[in-house]
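Progress against Task 2.4 (sequence-to-structure conversion) is shown through the following example record, which the project officer requested during the mid-term review.
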Amino acid sequence: MEVLAAAPILESRELVFDRYGPYVVIFNADGAAVPVFLASGEWVGEATSADLIGPLIDAFENGGAR
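Structure tokens generated for the chain above:
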């Protein structure tokens, strides 16, 4: 998986938004869980850690639990 571009945001001190193709992930300094959305706003799921973002996206693309 390759990060194509960071998601645009005006200002955020505690959150970091990253983009993986059509997917947007939100890293929060206060927690390990990582919410994942499509750029269109559709909910993909929440990875329990950054290491599990790829498997979550793979499961979503293959019709896994949402």
